[in-house]
Structure formats: structure tokens, C-alpha cells
Amino acid sequence: MQSRRLFLAVVIAVGVGASIPAYGADQDGAVSATGTDWDAPGPFPITVQAGFAHTVYRPATLGADGRRHPVIVWGNGTGATPLAYDNLLRHWATHGFVVAAANTTMANSGQAMVDGARWLLQENDRPGSVYHGKIDPAEIGSVGHSQGGAGAINAGADPIVGTTIALQPGPRAAPEKLRGPALFLAGEKDGIVDPVKMVLPLYERAPQVPGVYAVLTGAGHFEPVGDGGRYRGVMTAWFYYQLNNDPRAANEFTGPSCGLCADPAWLDVRRRGLTAAIG
């Protein structure tokens, strides 16, 4: 999975402009089984700030009406940079999240992701910073793709990270150390990160936290490149659920008829402990 084959595939996917949909293009007009379109752009105009260690995607105006923004830290797949997932990261910023995307092409340890969160927390405390008093330090989530998915799990061991999304994650991860609710997403046609052999065992090794495991029908390993593909909506809903305590989003994952469970696009949905996950 951390191979030259993966590196070349990411480079090709990013290098061909037509392979990345224009941001705002809905994925098959997808509306969740609960009636909410999590794929749609949010209301916030955004700005992107490229730094040495991280690229930050955020609302252009921070702190409107006293708002404190939740934080998402992102880890790339092997050999990739945030540009490979640019439209997905922009999407989350339009929904009011501040996204610190690690610029590293080797995100497996999760340390670069945690460093991004810690930098934002320092800026939140620094008078004169654009982030001063505008970040919610209690609402931080980690997410990444492939090697970055393993990195997201490893970052989730840090006490400042409250929730994790492991998107087609690689195997070099320690889910036993996760501290908060986790969403494990696999692809039915993923020939690099096999759902049953690689992703499901990671989910099963984290019984200490509330969690969800689900497999997207027909999805290959590069489904998320660009704008997140058909994973975008469910990941956005998860962050609304976990970082915004949104009851609409909670309905996508909780209860006997959860939206994810009822959606035919998802296979083998497994859940545990979600009644205690919100809040």
C-alpha cells in the first residue's frame, strides 16, 4: 500500500485536471437517507493559507457572532500533498471547520497532524493572531486517506483529538490507543486496502471507543482523491455529529434506523457504543 504503485496513481490522479470534479459538483445528487445533503457546500466563503508545515483551509471570516470553530487535521496518502484532496478540504472549510492539512507526503505517524492542531491552539491563545479566541479547543477531529488514514488513527491517541475518521487506512496504526469515537471507511473495490483484511481488523481492535465501520459500494482506492468522492457526505456528517453535536448528523449514525444503515450505497455497516458518543 505504501508502494511506488500508490505514489504514481496519486500523481496521475492529481495531474489530470479532468479527474478532479469542480468543487460544488454533487456526487450523484446524493441526499442521505435522513434527508440531508451533506455533499453540498456550506455557507462560509473560505480562504486557503499555504505554510511550510501545513496548509490551512478556513472560513475567510472567523469568529462571526462569537463562533468558535471546530478543527479538522488531515493526513495525505503516500506521496500526496493536500493539493490531491483540495476540493474536499475546501468543502469542510465552507461548513465552518478550520482544516490544518499536513504538507507531509508520509503521514503515517500522525505527528504532523497533531502538530497542526497544536499550532492552531497556540494561535488561539496568541493575542493578535487571526485565530485568537476563535478556535474551539474541545472540538478537534483527525482524518486522513490511506497512509494518512493510519496517521489519523495514530493522531487519535493524543488527548487533544476527540474523534477520528480512518478513510481506507493503511495497516501501520494503533487503534487500541484511540481515545474518542472513530469512523472506519472502506471501499468495496479497493485493491490496495482490502476492506475485510485490513480495515475491518482495525475497527475490531478498537473496542474501547464508540465506532462505525462501513464499506462503500463500488469504491476503489482513489475514490477520495479530489473532492472526497462519495465519501464526502458521510465524513461531513460525522464531523457535524462529533464536533458540532448536530442532531441531524447524529441520526445518520445512531438509532435502529440510522441513515447510513438505510443507505443502499453502503455495505456491511457495523456500529458499537454510539449512544454515548455525542457530546
From TrEMBL:
Entries under InterPro entries matching the protein: AB_hydrolase_fold (IPR029058), PET_hydrolase/cutinase-like (IPR041127)
Sequence ranges assigned to domain PET hydrolase/cutinase-like in this UniProt record: 54-250
Pfam families noted in UniProt: PETase
Signal peptide: 1-24
GO function term, MF aspect, one: 1-alkyl-2-acetylglycerophosphocholine esterase activity
Superkingdom of source: Bacteria
Protein name (record): PET hydrolase/cutinase-like domain-containing protein
Naturally occurring in which organism (per UniProt): Herbihabitans rhizosphaerae
